[in-house]
Amino acid sequence: MELGLTVGDSIDRLEATADGFDFVEFGLAESADVPDSISVERLRGALDDMDLAFDVHLPFKQVVATPVPEINEAIVAYQGRLLEWAGDLGARKAVLHGTVRDPHDTDLRSTVATQLSKIVEAGEEHGVEIVVENVGHQPRGLQLTVLGDIAAEVDASVCFDVGHAYMEDGNDGVERFAKRYGELISHVHVHDVRGRGDTHMPIGAGEVDYGIVSEHLDGFDGTVAVEVFTDDVALLRDTASRAAGYLGSEFDSGTTS
Is the separation of the CB atoms in 15 and 48 below 8 Å? Predict the structure, then answer.
């Protein structure tokens, strides 16, 4: 298992917080000038200097599918362009939000499957594994079971966001997804949340029962990214250490030079 850190689209945050992790998950913003606006030379230098592997998160707001064929073609082309850039930079995985124009439109689900399959193929073309993330707590997010079933249908890997699953359906949702779709999970986002809406907190500060994660994903052999919205290195490393313990691994929670 590898333990990494989400750093948004900030190379500054990468340099300030990622020391001692195995990889970073770098976010691609929604701006039209991405990735041209990213300093590849500086990003490569930071990754090399800190001996970090590289993964990406595709734009958060971009949906996977709409009812309009021309828009769907453009979505695949757009994601393909970003995946080419990510692959050239050595990215291994790309997180894709499982969002659509209307997640309650059951007639759209076959289109979602087709779109996801095409994006997975685009990733494979550039050597990048697509991992589709559960965001069913959001207005455009596919529900947990729907996301899992579609991913299974097209043989797509999953990014299991534990906190998002809790926000959607409590600890029952965490357990149901981990138990039913565990074989699809290649990448995990770890953070803690509270039902009142507080999210992306250090593990132990919220209400998620990570014992459930331990029960179903003990010995997990994929990648795990700490997604805690703070630059406090001690808190980030503490969450990494706790996550490693729940998943049957270890992480040095001490500071590095």
Answer: no
